[in-house]
Design goal:
This protein has about 600 residues and is α/β, with parallel strands linked by helices. It is built from 11 helices and 36 strands. The chain folds into 3 domains: about 100 residues, Golgi alpha-mannosidase II (Immunoglobulin-like); about 350 residues, TIM Barrel, CATH 3.20.20.80; about 110 residues, Trefoil (Acidic Fibroblast Growth Factor, subunit A) (Trefoil), CATH 2.80.10.50. The strands form 8 sheets. It has a 10-stranded mixed beta sheet, with helices on one face. It has an 8-stranded parallel beta sheet with strand order 10-9-8-6-4-3-2-11. Strand 19 and strand 20 form a beta hairpin.
Length: about 600
């Protein structure tokens, strides 16, 4: 029987012969090697969404027909079809200087409730529920001002003696909206807890590490007493550095972890692959799944914080790169953008400028109240998010992709018997992609949708699929989503050598685990990787244990014998979230391969030879 490589070579040769017979000019270069879709499943995707903070306080003044259109653009299958929506439980806006960022709370001074408040927030929460958004999430920027140390909705802390009051308040709000048909699936009781927000441009409060577990336990116990089916997500750290250093401190306090459903982080520090991989390690260390729950406001050609309004494909591709890395490197199971709408268009809603901000997906005129303009302005970020949210639905399972061409990012998902592949081409020229599937490979493409400088969710030509390999030409500077059938069948193990980028030498099995040696093509350098996530060498399965790497004769299915092949070249243990690492960045034959926290270094970067 021919191997996959031999079959692919025959298909390529046959295609070249056909071209010659038809009079086509010979190809100027050989077809690119196929990128590989991992046969092993990584994480399951929970949701993709955006926040309803702030803009709803302006949109409550818009014509109801415009409000309905916004809801369709966010929640309907013809729009983004978001699978999560973040509703902001306001803190009353006391002392906040920006009116739209001062949401009303429901509590009166005497402890009674006025549920007629927050009309804008309630309007769009209702729309989200009616459209069937899968995960409704409530989040709090600030507790009501009367329970804060400074008596304001910005800055200060929640007073310790009011922790239980705060928990009861959140639970009361949860009960109320559940009775209205909008049951919250998750609650986030504090947001960016290391930021003081004492400039009072928006709501917010400090929550010291030692106070976070107290709030989580108080809210969790209150929910349990009321039999509320609402999970808690925390701690919404503004940076991955804070997340990785602070989450283990508070969640390890007795009685706390039982109440935490998901870990939440933001990525405003523009993390590299090392920090994103560390998110996975942190999550593994506490036994929870992570979500990426907020990002915005990058610009100036990169994904770092910068003031700019950019509605172009450059901004769209930067957003798509962040989503890709959060899913494929951090292995987050959710991605949530910051505000769905914004008024921060700057000097021109149609063109890039330095006066606005990239905080929204859609925009509206900040002067709507005086000029009556209720036009909605679209950005490529809106369409970029839709390349994921419209197709990668809750329950989709990520399969890592290795060997993508330079300048190209590929993520692949299975869902309900189909494959969904999202491809970012950052190159300024069209780029060829061959993508081989090693598990339930497809036989045909069902749909191809693309966003580029000139296209918005455009239906484009469906690429060919032959012998489980998709062959496509990616348009320059584009994001393309392919939906393919899954014909089923047994998975195929990926077999070959793994070459270290730093040393140029190959991962080599030996009695004590693994080392690097000059690549010879010998049996000791051949590794198979299968649907179970096992890396098997000639002496058995590579196993990560408390004493380091070893080789085990049998596969037990334990996490220590399962590995993820990240598209950036990291080989990551599912037990610890740590990377295969050449100790001390050594290059000599026989240098030990160990497990070490992922650093993004070339001594942790491997490619199939």
């Amino acid at each position: 029987m021919l191997t996959r490589t031999e079959r692919f070579a025959l298909v390529t040769a046959a295609a070249a012969l056909t071209g010659a017979l038809l009079g086509s000019p010979p190809a100027s270069a050989a077809a690119p090697a196929a990128a590989e879709v991992s046969p092993h499943a990584a994480q399951t995707i929970d949701n993709i969404g955006a926040s309803g903070a702030w803009w709803v306080n302006d949109l409550k003044n818009f014509d109801p027909a415009v409000q309905a259109r916004v809801a369709r653009l966010l929640f309907s299958p013809n729009g983004l079809d978001l699978s999560s929506y973040r509703y902001n439980i306001g803190g009353g806006g006391t002392s906040v200087t920006t009116p739209s960022r001062a949401p009303e709370d429901f509590r009166d001074a005497d402890g009674t409730y006025d549920w007629s408040r927050d009309r804008g927030g309630r309007t769009f929460l209702k729309y989200a529920a009616e459209y069937g958004v899968e995960d409704l999430i409530a989040f709090v920027n600030s507790a009501p001002a009367e329970w804060k140390t400074n008596g304001k909705s910005c800055g200060g802390y929640l007073k310790d003696e009011n922790t239980q009051d705060f928990a009861r308040y959140i639970a009361d709000v949860t009960d109320h909206f559940a009775a209205q048909g909008a049951r919250f699936d998750y609650i986030s009781p504090f947001n960016e807890p290391t930021n003081s927000f004492d400039s009072c441009g928006q709501e917010g409060m400090l929550v010291p590490v030692a106070q976070r577990d107290d709030i989580v336990r108080a809210l969790g116990a209150e929910q349990r007493a009321r039999q509320q089916r609402t999970g808690i997500i925390a701690d919404e750290s503004s940076s991955t550095v804070s997340f990785n250093t602070e989450v283990p401190q508070w969640i390890s306090q007795p009685g706390t972890a039982q109440y935490v459903s998901k870990l939440a982080h933001h990525t405003y520090n523009n993390p590299g692959d090392d920090q994103r991989a560390k998110i996975y390690e942190t999550s593994k260390s506490v036994g929870k799944q992570s979500w990426s729950t907020e990002i915005c406001c990058f610009g100036k050609g990169g994904t770092g914080w910068a003031q700019e309004y950019d509605p172009t494909i450059d901004g769209g591709l930067n957003l798509s790169r962040i989503i890709h890395k959060d899913f494929a490197t951090a292995h987050d199971s959710a991605f949530q953008w910051w505000v769905a709408l914004s008024e921060m268009v700057g000097t021109d809603p149609y063109a890039r400028n330095d006066s606005g901000w990239n905080d929204g997906l859609l925009y509206y005129d900040p002067d709507y109240a005086t000029n009556g303009n209720q036009t909605l302005y679209f950005t490529k970020r809106y369409y970029a998010l839709g390349q994921y949210s419209k197709f990668v639905k809750p329950g989709a399972v990520l399969h890592d992709v290795t060997g993508a061409p330079a300048g190209v990012e590929v993520s692949a998902y299975t869902h309900k018997g189909r494959w969904i592949v999202v491809v970012n081409n950052h190159n300024t020229t069209d780029t060829a992609l061959n993508l081989h599937f090693n598990n339930a490979g497809p036989s045909r493409t069902l749909k191809a949708v693309r966003t580029s400088a000139t296209e918005n969710w455009a239906k484009v030509a469906e690429p060919s699929v032959s012998d489980g390999t998709l062959s496509a030409t990616l348009a320059a500077r584009s994001i393309t989503t392919y939906v393919l059938d899954g014909k089923g069948g047994e998975s195929t193990a990926v077999t070959g050598a793994w070459q270290g980028r730093h040393s140029g030498k190959c991962l080599t099995a030996d009695a004590s685990g693994a080392a690097i040696r000059t690549c010879t093509g010998g049996a000791e350098q051949q590794w198979s990787y299968d649907a179970q996530g096992a890396l098997k060498g000639p002496d058995g399965f590579l196993t990560a244990g408390s004493s380091g790497l070893t080789t085990s004769a049998g596969f037990t299915g334990d996490a220590g014998q399962r590995w993820l092949l990240n598209g950036n070249g990291q080989i990551v243990s599912e037990a610890s979230g740590k990377c295969l690492d050449v100790s001390g960045q050594a290059t000599a034959d026989g240098s030990r391969v160990i497990l070490y926290s992922c650093t993004g270094g070339t001594n942790q970067t491997w490619s199939r030879g």
